[in-house]
Amino acid sequence: xxxxxxxxxxxxxxxxxxxxxxxxxxxxxxxxxxxxxxxxxxxxxxxxxxxxxxxxxxxxxxxxxxxxxxxxxxxxxxxxxxxxxxxxxxxxxxxxxxxxxxxxxxxxxxxxxxxxxxxxxxxxxxxxxxxxxxxxxxxxxxxxxxxxxxxxxxxxxxxxxxxxxxxxxxxxxxxxxxxxxxxxxxxxxxxxxxxxxxxxxxxxxxxxxxxxxxxxxxxxxxxxxxxxxxxxxxxxxxxxxxxxxxxxxxxxxxxxxxxxxxxxxxxxxxxxxxxxxxxxxxxxxxxxxxxxxxxxxxxxxxxxxxxxxxxxxxxxxxxxxxxxxxxxxxxxxxxxxxxxxxxxxxxxxxxxxxxxxxxxxxxxxxxxxxxxxxxxxxxxxxxxxxxxxxxxxxxxxxxxxxxxxx
Length: 406
Ligand SMILES: [Zn+2]
Fold this sequence. Notes:
Order of helices and strands: HHHEEEEEEEEEEEEEEEEHHEEEHHH
CATH superfamily of the domain at 1-30 and 257-406: Neutral Protease Domain 2
Number of strands: 19
Shape: globular
Largest sheet: 7 strands, mixed
Bound molecules: zinc ion
Oligomer: single chain
Structural class: alpha+beta
Distance between the termini: 32 Å
Strand content: 25-35%
CATH class of the domain at 1-30 and 257-406: Mainly Alpha
Strand order of the largest sheet: 4-7-2-1-10-13-12
Radius of gyration: 22 Å
Helix content: 25-40%
């Protein structure tokens, strides 16, 4: 156990640096002030005294005039002290139009600071109650972080117009960022089921967590995409993405494997995603069955992020060679380490990253053989781990020296 921890600490440091592609770090500098925690106008996690059971999301996307409009319905159970209100987060650039409830009377709604939303209900919430509330909202999500949140991007070269979300942020503490587009209160130990209807412009495809139940072409040529996730996951693993995707199916069942690919990148994607079925079988054999009904990757401008059932995958990695296999394996493995076995507390996220980074090497072994594992460990993981360990050792030496001087 001790040895394992020593190995994983430096590996986590590597992982943090390795899979945040497409980030405009210069632009980040001007946005830090917005999202730093804690602040006088933000809520403390201790107020999260309820257990969200399921979220239903219904969203319409406008990609030409970047904005969203729709609703989020939350069913929640109350398992602590009586509460007069439900505390949620939602960026204040999104306007709340109304809040309704099928179980309680909505007395009032208030918003404070950058991201808080309080719904006051009566009668007050007692131990054992369940509540069902629906929040109707619209607007243009403000950027909360250069990596996490909701982003709209216009066409540039081979990249089509896109709206996508990333559920974790680089600069938030705690890191979940889905309050940029979804009223929620993310705690890793509060797992939810999910169902989503995405109404997207003509020619676009919507993708979200779970199995695609249906897609409907509407009279105005827009379309509606319906997904449902029956396996509860932490809220930071939920996502939506809308673009000109082609759906590339690699497997029909156990689990369904499908990737959402830009039309201009289909040829590269056929090569790039080739090892996915073999690797998911290997992980399933060695870690335990894959528990979700679907798996795949959806191309996005930034990435990667291990959203449940579909990894939001950095589009620049989709090339006609094997140079990015490691990130495919890393994010896939999170479906065991993080998406299924989940940390109770944000402070333990390094465990998810440590296991996933080791799984990059295991994927090499199980797809390409023992020599590939050894090569990857020697050339990719070991030097960075040694460098991180030397920094740790240097820190320890300084601390010991300081103690000796007392
Ligand atoms: Zn990771």
